[in-house]
UniProtKB/TrEMBL annotation:
It comes from the Bacteria. This is Lysine 2,3-aminomutase. It is an enzyme of class 5 (isomerase). InterPro entries: Aldolase_TIM, Lys_aminomutase-rel, Lys_aminomutase/Glu_NH3_mut, rSAM, rSAM_sf. GO terms for molecular function: 4 iron, 4 sulfur cluster binding; L-lysine 2,3-aminomutase activity; metal ion binding. It comes from Mycoplana azooxidifex. The keyword NADP does not apply. Its cofactor is pyridoxal 5'-phosphate; [4Fe-4S] cluster. SUPFAM superfamilies: Radical SAM enzymes (SSF102114). Signal peptide: none annotated. Its EC number is 5.4.3.2.
Length: 359
């Protein structure tokens, strides 16, 4: 019997029984050509094939709705490019930078905020010279206290390459914290082995791993064991979840997810309002709906389980807590949002702006 493999195309998904045969001649095939597709064996095994609205399938199996691009959607919704002084670095806040060493992921989320940058035809992996320049940028700026490895998913890199990056960060005295944003413990749990864990600790800095998971069913026994290997090694874990229509826009589902994080020694951190990425409006709630949902978590679950509901202000103006007074609904139905520098921005009330057609 052949080993299960990562499903990387619409025909692969048809063969695995996750799409009907006619999908290869439909708009879904166009979606598969436009945006990257990947489901690891661990993800495919989580999907309930009897459920046409399965919350795991919705996150990873392409949908014809992705061809619909709305007027408010943007190629670079959180404005990475506007804050990228050198290739691979995003420097939006004074004390921290993103280091995007790689733009591939083990899975491709249908709602991805960097969907125009990740995947086989995305921005690729930094060349050795680009990585040198990125590390030199960090080394030259004493205000940088934290380096956040994101991408793409940095844990797709080999343990050898991760160790190399961590050892280079170890040599920079002002960097105290290194954080990884990843889906790997859930979607490829066997990849979290002792070699990889050792590499993550190689800098001697404090290492955080921010786990991206959106539904409690993603925390399988294998995923829980992978997280335990990280935490037992002294790596702190925090969570990040994207609030998604049809996946987790339900107080019971969110409560179960946040509790599962805490039970696994993962501190709930961010609940992201979905970004204005092209072709993702079918996932997007209005801000008012999101606020009402998050309000239901108060009192229902322990304080340890409460995430911070945040919005990345479109255009690269940073994050804002949706429940704070920096986010105000105005009479015209839009939201007025104040960024951390005091600038004001308008945000649409919901996903009812006109569509502009295919990307
Ligand atoms: S893992 Fe993150 S970067 Fe990769 S496709 Fe999903 S949301 Fe995008």
């Amino acid at each position: 019997m052949s080993m299960p493999r990562t499903l990387r195309s619409v025909p692969d998904l048809v063969e695995a029984g996750l799409l009907p045969p006619e999908a290869v001649r439909s708009d879904i095939a166009r979606v598969g050509e436009r945006y990257a597709v990947a489901l690891t064996p661990a993800v495919a095994a989580m999907i309930d094939r009897e459920d046409p609205r399965d919350p795991i399938a919705l996150q990873f199996v392409p949908d014809a709705a992705e061809l619909l691009v709305r007027a408010e959607e943007r190629i670079d919704p959180i404005g990475d490019l506007a804050h990228s002084p050198v290739e691979g670095i995003v420097h939006r806040y004074p004390d921290r930078v993103l280091l995007k060493a790689v733009h591939v992921c083990p899975v491709y989320c249908r709602f991805c905020f960097r969907r125009e940058m990740v995947g086989p035809s995305g921005l690729g992996t930094l060349t050795p010279e680009q990585l040198d320049a990125a590390i030199a940028y960090i080394a030259a700026r004493p205000d940088i206290w934290e380096v956040i490895l994101t991408g793409g998913d940095p844990l797709v890199l080999s343990a050898r390459r991760l160790r190399d990056i961590m050892e280079r960060l170890a040599a920079i005295g002002h960097v105290k914290v290194v954080r990884f944003h990843t889906r790997v413990p859930v979607v490829e749990p066997d990849h979290i082995d002792s070699e990889l864990v050792g590499a993550l600790k190689a800098s001697g800095k404090t290492t955080y791993v921010a786990l991206h998971a959106n539904h409690p069913r993603e925390l399988t026994p294998q995923a829980r064991a992978a997280c335990a290997r990280l935490v037992d090694a002294g790596i702190a874990m925090i969570s990040q979840t994207v609030l998604l229509k049809g996946v987790n826009d339900d107080a019971d589902v969110l409560a179960a997810l946040m509790r599962a994080f805490v039970e696994n020694r993962i501190r709930p951190y961010y609940l992201h309002h979905p970004d204005l990425a092209p072709g993702t409006s079918h996932f997007r709630l209005g801000l008012a709906e999101g606020k009402a949902l998050v309000a239901q978590l108060r009192g229902r679950i322990s304080g340890l389980c409460q995430p911070t509901y945040i919005l990345d202000i479109p255009g690269g103006h940073g994050k804002v807590s949706v429940l704070s007074d920096a986010v105000r609904e105005s009479d015209d139905g839009c939201f007025r949002i104040r960024d951390f520098r005091g600038g004001e921005h308008l945000y649409p009330s919901g996903s009812d702006a006109p569509a502009t057609g295919s990307p």
